[in-house]
């Protein structure tokens, strides 16, 4: 059985998810984890980061925890944090191992001239942990 899945962006452009999965190859298993972490249904979304930004991050890197950790019953607190922080560091253009506090400082200190929109900064670890737990629960329910 074949099913055609599409996603419509706010500007009316339609993205073919089937073609995206084919393009991703084995990484397509990470697509659902990416979808949940970037906001869906009852999971919050990172401000200023839409589905296309997160999809570009997924295509540029490899995040096996998005399907090996999220939604797994035996996932630990440290597993969730490691998976989520690794993805969010890449999402906000930060090197691997950067804390979200460091990311906030780096992003804030790069802005010159124009006032900084606080919403454009990544969330801190305490908030992210709750976000990751909600995404984990959502994956378990699916």
SSE blueprint and pairings:
Elements: E1 6-8, E2 14-16, H1 17-24, H2 31-37, H3 51-60, H4 65-68, H5 77-91, H6 100-110, H7 125-141
Antiparallel strand pairs: 1-2
Structure description:
This protein has 142 residues and is mainly α. The chain has a two-stranded antiparallel ribbon with strand order 1-2. 51% of the residues lie in helices and 4% in strands. The protein has one domain (6-141). Helix 2 packs across helix 7 (125-141) and helix 5 packs across helix 7 (125-141). The protein starts with 5 loop residues before the first strand and ends with a helix.
**Count of domains:** 1
Strand order of the largest sheet: 1-2
Rounded mean pLDDT score: 82
Summing up helix and strand content along with how strands pair, one would put the structural category as mainly alpha
- Rounded to the nearest angstrom, the distance between the terminal CA atoms is 21 Å
Which strand-content bin applies to the residues? under 5%
**Rg over alpha carbons:** 16 Å
